[in-house]
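User: Hey, quick favor. My workstation is busy. Could you predict this chain's structure for me?
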Amino acid sequence: MTSRLSSTDMLAKLVSFDTTSRYSNLELIGFVQDYLNAHGIASDLVHDETGKKANLWATIGPAGDGGVVLSGHTDVVPVDGQPWDTDPFVLTEKDDGRLYGRGTCDMKAFSAVALHMLPEFIAAPLKAPIHLALSYDEEVGCIGVHGLVDHIRKIGVKPRLAIIGEPTMMRVVDAHKSIRSYSVAITGHEAHSSNVHKGVSAVMVAAELIGKIAEIGERLRLTGDDTARFDPPFSTMIANTIGGGTAQNILARDCRFTFEIRGLPQNDLDKAYEEFRAFALESVLPRIKAAAPTADIQIRRRAYSPPLKAAPGSDAESFVMALAERNAAEAVSYGTEAGIFQEAGIPAIVCGPGDIAQAHQPNEFLDKAQIPLCEAFMRRLIARLTA
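Assistant: No problem, here it is.
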C-alpha cells in the first residue's frame, strides 16, 4: 500500500497539474486512479467525446444505495495575464499562513482532503458508501458533470446526497443562482466609414444588442429576492467579452460578444432570454438585412447550469449542517454543479474549504487553517456512516 500523503502534500500534487480548462485533465485523473488502485479501490472513468478529458467515479465501502458523494471539479481557470508573485502551479506556503497556487481555493483542496482521508474511509466499518466524484470542465459551463450523473444513473446507484466541495469557508450552502451563457456572432457589411449608408457596422449592431441586455438587466434588478438571502438580491444579465472590427475607417464586418444571465432560483429567465432573442432576430436583423442581404446575427447557448433550490429542513441540509457544525444554511450568487445533481434526483449541498473571494484571482490562496476544518468534517462523515 502506498504511503499516505498529508492533505497539504496531496494539494501540492493536485495543484502541480495544469488543468486549465483548455487542456486535458487526464494526467491528474491518472494520478488519482493510480492512488486509488494502490489502496485497492477501483474507479470508473467517463471520457468526453475527444477522449482527452475524463470524469472519475469511485466507491469506498459497501455497495448499494444511501451513500454520500464527495464531488469536486478538476479544472481551473487560466492564469494568462495575471500578475502572480509565485509559480501558480507550485504550491507555495508563506509565513502568512496561506497556501498559494491555482486551484488551492477553487477547488482542489476539498478533493485533496478527501484523498488524504482515503485510508481512514477504507479502515472504517462504513454502513453506507462514500463515493468520490471528480469532473472536468466545470469552469466552462459545468459540462463534464452531466456525463458523470448519467454514469451514476447507468450503474443504478441512488446516493443519499452529494456534497459539492466548492469554497464556502466550510459553511453550508443550500441554494445558488442559475447560470446561462451565450455567444453572439454578428456579420455586417464592410464599407468606408464615411459611407455608413452603404454598409453595416457589426460593432454598432453589437452595441445596440448589448444596450438591450443592459435594459433587461436593469428590469431584473427591480424584481429582487424578498428573502434577502442572495448578494446581489436580484438576477443579473450582463455582457462580458467583445471583439470585432479591423480598422478605424472601415465599417466592421464581424463582431462577437458573450453574455450571461445569473438567475435567482425562483425566476423564469426564459422570458429574459426570449425578449433579447426576439429583439435581435425580429427587430434588428430585418433592418440590417435590408441594408446588406448578407448581414446576419447568430446566437448560440454556450452553457447552462441550473440553480440549486433550497429545501429547508431536508435530510441533506440537516446531515451536512451536522458535519459542518453549523446551525443555518446560506445562499450564494455563484453557480456550482450542485443544481445538476439536484435535477438528477440527488439532493445536493455545497460545502468546502476556502473563500470564494479568492477564486479566479491572481495569487489565489487557501488559508491553511481551512484544511483541519475540512478533515474534521470528513471524520464526522465517517462517524455518521458507521453509527
